């Protein structure tokens, strides 16, 4: 094979070159149209709001903003009660947090935030997506109710797990045993000089 010379490739038929050229021209035209659409959307947004759009704003966002502004012009803005509710949410002025889940053994370390009923946890395990919802009196998964996140994690995996760690609420304490060993090593080293 090494001694053999490569055979010359037959010349491409002119129709193939034309189709490639046509494809490139089509792609260039589509890019021009997209750019023109972005410019048009920017002008429309500016005429509707009087505000200039940032140059990095993507086309899909501009399209949504223009549609929203047109909707406001045609149907009016949000009702005052909705605007005030949204403002309260943005200020997080909704009152005290809900009580922790009754009967949940998954309290976590001191200072850990409690889990509010209605919270949904999503975890992928062995290529399956699992959704767990916090209830007033436990956790719901696959139509069953569990007393703790650890019980749910055990039902999902078949082995014992810290529920908060399994669902990503508590970071793994890195080097816990290594820290104990280093403390013991330091004590032995310090004590060795005394005798």
Q: Work out the strand percent.
A: 5-15%
How many independent structural domains? 2
List the uncertain runs: 177-195
Biggest sheet layout: 4 strands, antiparallel
Mean pLDDT figure: 75
Structural class: alpha+beta
Overall shape: it is flat
Calculate the terminal CA-CA distance, rounded to whole Å: 80 Å
N-to-C order of helices and strands: HHHEEEEHHH
> What integer value in Å does the Rg equal?
31 Å
- For the largest beta sheet, what order do the strands appear in spatially? 1-2-3-4
How much helicity do the residues have? 40-55%
Instruction: Count the beta strands.
Output: 4
Number of helices: 6
Please supply descriptive tags for the structure shown above.
alpha+beta, about 200 residues, disordered C terminus, about 10% strand, four-stranded antiparallel sheet
């Amino acid at each position: 094979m090494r001694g053999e010379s490569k055979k010359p490739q037959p010349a491409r038929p002119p129709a193939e070159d034309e189709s490639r050229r046509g494809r490139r021209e089509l792609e260039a035209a589509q890019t021009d149209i997209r750019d023109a659409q972005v410019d048009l959307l920017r002008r429309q947004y500016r005429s509707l709001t009087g505000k200039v759009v940032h140059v990095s704003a993507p086309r899909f966002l501009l399209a949504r903003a223009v549609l929203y502004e047109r909707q406001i012009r045609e149907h009016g803005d949000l009702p005052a009660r909705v605007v005030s509710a949204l403002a309260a949410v943005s200020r997080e002025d909704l009152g005290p947090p809900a009580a922790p889940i009754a009967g949940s053994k998954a309290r976590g370390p001191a200072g850990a935030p409690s889990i509010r009923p209605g919270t949904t946890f999503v975890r992928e395990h062995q290529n399956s997506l699992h959704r767990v919802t916090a209830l007033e009196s436990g956790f719901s998964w696959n139509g069953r109710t569990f007393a703790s996140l650890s019980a749910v994690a055990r039902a999902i995996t078949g082995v014992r797990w810290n529920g908060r760690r399994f669902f990503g609420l508590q970071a793994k304490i890195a080097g816990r045993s290594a820290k104990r060993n280093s403390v013991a090593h330091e004590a032995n080293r310090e004590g060795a000089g005394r005798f």
